[in-house]
Design goal:
385 residues; alpha/beta; Aspartate Aminotransferase, domain 2; Aspartate Aminotransferase, domain 1; seven-stranded mixed sheet; five-stranded mixed sheet; 12 strands; 37% helix; globular; binds pyridoxal-5'-phosphate
């Protein structure tokens, strides 16, 4: 927040505001692949839209400002953003990842980067002394989500940043679940922040996009080089949609969180519910750490029903809440991590880290909370056997 004291204002006025040429209050969609050059040998500001595009540049400046970093980069998806960050590493390097990360992050490491000799290992990043023991000479980065997907496990971001600095390796946080409105990892010393902007930043389930923010000019040069070389850039129209979505992030998230807190309370008190994972509950793992590093517990809730409730029937009986991959849109969504978002993680690993077949993940929308809760209540009742 270099220019604006409060993030609510930066969301709307941050980065590059409006259009210098026409004074339009919105950054135009520069739907162009190339730009005319004045003369041979004069490198113009804009030359080719893979390298740079004014609409994308406005979004990149905005996310950098919101996260408190020096540079932002926009990609065609969260996975393209993660791929760009992982492209910083070399054969023989190893990356430590949180024990529950987004399934696609696990998959790209396990099935793609492994082909290039880049290794990974799954660690409990909540246990910092144990994590430190895993930092061997080949380890070059720690990649965490907090809260992590789907068990909402909280990792101490400052402790991870300090640990990475001590061992001269990079710290990377996938901040998708929190957004800069609720949590700003760079303030704790984290080197790289990644977003699937498809989720809360876009906010309306109508755009797939990814963002990267760094706080160091050398690192920025490397990411810019990778972005231009590998080419997974975000299109001008999608950049516009994301800028538009980000403007309402604060008001959307205030309502999302208000609804999530009520939904967590409802689930905790429901006789059919065996376990609730929500970092905003005082008895949740990492509650105190989350309170210190984030504004609140966020929007995502995972829960398990007792064995005498049939989860297939539960999903089938929902009317308002939709069964879908993804999260972070204005509409409430549920998913079944074991067969959907985390299906790429082998069964044994899923059991070990707690992604059981009975786990349900809920992305609480901004509909009327009474409608959301009565839909969940009737679906639970229908699923009792
Ligand atoms: C969805 C998601 C991703 C992947 O992003 P896409 O935009 O779907 O490519 C990465 N990390 C987290 C935490 C996510 O929820």
């Amino acid at each position: 927040m270099s220019e604006y004291k409060n993030i609510e204002s930066a969301l709307i006025h941050g980065g590059i505001y409006g259009d210098e040429y026409t004074k339009a209050v919105n950054v135009p969609i520069y739907q162009t692949s190339t730009y005319e050059q004045k003369a041979l040998g004069e490198t113009p500001k804009w030359e080719y839209s893979r390298t740079g595009n004014p609409t994308r540049a406005a979004l990149e400046a905005l996310i950098a400002e919101l996260e408190g970093g020096t540079s932002g980069f926009a990609f065609a998806s969260g996975m393209a953003a993660i791929t760009a960050v992982l492209s910083l590493f070399h054969a023989g390097d190893k990356i430590l990842i949180s024990s529950n990360v987004y399934g696609g992050t696990f998959r790209v490491l396990d099935k793609i980067f492994s082909n290039f000799g880049i290794g990974y290992s799954i660690e409990d990043t909540t246990d910092i002394p144990e994590l430190e023991k895993k930092i061997t000479d080949d380890v070059k980065a720690i990649l965490v989500e907090s809260p992590a997907n789907p068990l909402l496990t909280v990792t101490d971001l400052k402790a991870v940043a300090d640990l990475a600095k001590k061992h001269h390796i990079l710290s990377v946080v996938d901040n998708t679940f929190m957004t800069p409105y609720l949590q700003r990892p760079i303030e704790f010393g984290i080197d790289i922040v990644i977003h699937s902007a498809t989720k809360y930043l876009g906010g309306h389930s109508d755009v797939v996009a990814g963002l990267v923010v760094v706080n160091d000019d050398e690192l920025a040069k490397k990411i810019a080089f990778i972005q231009n070389s590998t080419g997974g850039v975000l299109a001008p129209f999608d950049s516009f949609l994301l800028i538009r979505g980000i403007k309402t992030l604060a008001v959307r998230l205030d309502r999302h969180v208000e609804n999530a807190e009520k939904a967590a309370e409802f689930l905790v008190n429901h006789k059919a519910v065996k376990k609730v994972y929500y970092p905003g509950l005082p008895n949740a793992q990492g509650y105190e750490i989350n309170k210190r590093q984030a504004k609140n517990g966020g929007v995502m809730i995972s829960f398990e029903l007792y064995e005498n409730y049939n989860i297939r029937k539960f999903f089938k009986s929902l009317k308002l809440v939709a069964l879908a991959e993804s999260l972070g849109g204005v509409e409430s969504l549920v998913c079944h991590p074991a067969t959907m978002t985390h299906a790429s993680i082998p069964y044994e690993i899923r059991q070990k880290i707690g992604i059981t077949d009975g786990l349900i993940r809920l992305s609480v929308g901004i509909e009327n909370i009474d409608d959301i809760l009565s839909d969940i209540a009737q679906a639970i009742a229908e699923s009792e056997e």
